[in-house]
Predict the structure.
Amino acid sequence: MTAATWAEVPKGSPFPLQNLPYGVFTPAGDTRARVGVAIGAHVLDVAAVLGDDTFAHGALNPFLAQGRARWTAVRAELTALLTDARHRAAVTPHLHPLDAVTLHLPFEVADYVDFYASEHHAANVGRMFRPGAEPLTPQWKHLPIGYHGRAGTVVASGTPVVRPCGQKKPGAAGELPGFGPSARLDIEAEVGFVVGTGSALGTPVGTDAFAEHVFGVCLVNDWSARDVQAWEYVPLGPFLAKSFATSVSPWIVPLEALEAARVTPPERAHALRPYLRETEDWGLDLRLEVRLNGQPVSRPPFSAMYWTGAQMLAHMTVNGASLRTGDLYASGTVSGPEPGERGCLMELTWGGEEPLKLADGTSRAFLEDGDEVTITATAPGADGTVIGFGEVTGKILPAVAGGRS
Amino acid sequence: MTAATWAEVPKGSPFPLQNLPYGVFTPAGDTRARVGVAIGAHVLDVAAVLGDDTFAHGALNPFLAQGRARWTAVRAELTALLTDARHRAAVTPHLHPLDAVTLHLPFEVADYVDFYASEHHAANVGRMFRPGAEPLTPQWKHLPIGYHGRAGTVVASGTPVVRPCGQKKPGAAGELPGFGPSARLDIEAEVGFVVGTGSALGTPVGTDAFAEHVFGVCLVNDWSARDVQAWEYVPLGPFLAKSFATSVSPWIVPLEALEAARVTPPERAHALRPYLRETEDWGLDLRLEVRLNGQPVSRPPFSAMYWTGAQMLAHMTVNGASLRTGDLYASGTVSGPEPGERGCLMELTWGGEEPLKLADGTSRAFLEDGDEVTITATAPGADGTVIGFGEVTGKILPAVAGGRS
């Protein structure tokens, strides 16, 4: 049955009743952050409308920790409040215009893990970084490769990104390494999974427990300094090339809003180890868009990802590693098979060799100071609606002058 | 002037007055954890003796956040209380026998970073993993290589370690990867640095601000599954091979207790970038000992480390990454130049090819179920004393039977 909301939802809004993504906001003229859900051009104050202190926090974590049954119950309650016109008078005072609130980082990040789950991205990177070798490393199609990132520098959408400084490969063997502002500053358009309920140390979490542990999905921009990365990453992986900032969207779309977006992931090249087999399809038909200074430069399809969020979760815990409320794991760059579907500049400009031409007549190999990057996404929602993810955005500020070298 | 304590400090105790390491404990018959300092064979209840709620927590974090001036003041106050005999009657009721208290993980870990700062270790690993190539990667002597680990699986000393399962390299090209309990389970004897005060995003922290941000030092055992690591680690570094458990000692030795342990680090092969140059020597003369089932198997010297804790801190933040109270960064395996000074079994047994002979007549290539590994350390203290670090210990439990494969 199609539920209709009494709330005003402008045509084309990313936030129909069937979405109800969670965020943390401060109303205009107020100082206390609290949990809200987006509906149309408004945010509903969940703490106020439910009279529940779980939501009177500057982070979703207390709610995330309550688990799937509670997430379902609250979603049903909010849907009822926004559907039954008898609640309209009581609820309306708790609707704040979205353009008049401040949005925050929606949850306290416990551990942050970044995967490498797009075959197209990994193969493109392999071709550029290891020319002549097989584009994918031997284990790539047997397990979702991942690594830990810096949780403390996960920032809210809109936080400016200061161009990082770092060491770079020497010009010639025997020379000392260079140092300075990254000249190959890049984005990575990614999808993030937010863990609600934790797990016990020593107990793997199976693919079939995905919806029990994962609350929802957000957008992630994993800013990357490619010149720093090239010099530092062998043998222990990326470190300073990534740890200066990772931006996340203000809205966490609940898994329940994505039922209609579930798709079968691409065919697998090999039989998978039982712990990576899925009994349900957790591919997701999210369509991302990357805009550079307002101009669309890529449309990465998340449905093309080789590994699903459920497989990433199972792999991350198969060694007994525990989960905590607030863990964030991201997909890695989302790239599709077509050139216009690549989720980072390194791929879009083929290592900087084929600069992007922008509408203002300029071109870009990598990001310049003042550039603003915005990632959005949509997915099919229930009742033929379109689920929007809002956006994750960030502007590049110049490197700190006079910094240590 | 040499201060003498009225408290009983048995000869050879790791905890003389000049040490006063901080931990978190629960007294026998009580349920509330609080902060204590070790003195002789006792732990002093700091919350009770100072009547200060900062210490009435199950983690050091509130105290860590207060900063260097406060750390110095509290240390002076505790030293005075334990020195001036007039306080004896008032303080004595707050001394609990160490063997009757429960010790906990001493702080909530924010981000965990692991470095690779021993030249001897890195060169040995290079020889084994990349035979025929230069043992050290080209950047090794230009920057301290590091990567992020899993903060959520940093556990207190004594926590049993369940043998992890994972994928392993296929026997031959074209075969499917293996899966099962790690058959090459290893330790890494490391030294950890505990960050007290945080820093602002975008602002590097210099080597000269080391003592302003770092509160103290602990021991770390970074358990490692070498077979899992060999299959997973290219190109993004170690992940599941490390994330199942990292054990830390219950006592954090304040930097102030290590003044007499400061030494000049080894001579550098190259001129270093200014941000890595030190105006003070932060090499530390810590002498580690690794015991396997009670038998000493290695004595790694921390003074042989190429990179110091101050350099690791400066490198970790040179890209503008912020620090948070509770950040833990570890040195990586501490190995000296001699065979008996290697800090992991992979080196001690040369990849398992030269098993260690134990006193009980058995031998070990890697860890067996039931094995217990204990790491201790000492350092020169003030007034000719010896500063002890207590111990970090853990016992291997069998892999979970019937686990997913």
The two ends of chain A are 63 Å apart (CA to CA). The mean pLDDT of chain A is 96. The first strand of chain A starts at residue 22 and ends at 26. Chain A is about 15% helix and 25% strand.
